[in-house]
Amino acid sequence: MRITGGIFCRRQIKAPKGECRPTQDMVREALFSIIGPRIGGSRFLDLFAGSGAIGLEALSRGAESVCWVESNRRILENLKDNVANICGNEKSCDSPHKVRFFGGDALSFIKKGLESQQFDIIFADPPYDREEKKEWLSRILGILADGNTLAPGGLFIMEQSSGEELREDIAWDLIKDRVYGSTRLRFFVRKERQDIIQ
Fold this sequence. Notes:
The chain has five helices and seven strands; from the N terminus they run H-E-H-E-H-E-H-E-H-E-E-E. The chain is of the alpha/beta class. The longest helix has 15 residues, at 25-39. The mean pLDDT is 87.
């Protein structure tokens, strides 16, 4: 698995076998093709981060900062190794706030957020195979709507299995819905902002 674009293009990303489900290269390419104009200078949050591939793609393509949240300690250590191996000695990663890692529950993190920092783009890729999978989207949208982790005009992106149904949420507009094989990407903005991706 490799980074698909930007300054770190083609650098290898490692994932622990059987412990996480990295987003496929094709899906990552499609995702960043859609949000490309918004990446430069953005503050990017990668929830349920796994190997860190999505956040690394954002960093490679010009994000101002990237924050990864992963609850599994072993996977988090692998993620940190990926970031260190790919960009640890690069000037583009010099700032102490350029890359940040948090070990713990993703929902708890977005409830609390980071003091005095919001994110322009939030990406979530929770496990497909858990019993609570049908509730992930509604739970995350509810927390984000009630809090200030997502900046005004910010974009929330959810990766799901392609067959997952969508319940309408009065606080959010679904502005794009794309299926790539067994994977679905859904793009949301708060109701008051409908001009993010046209």
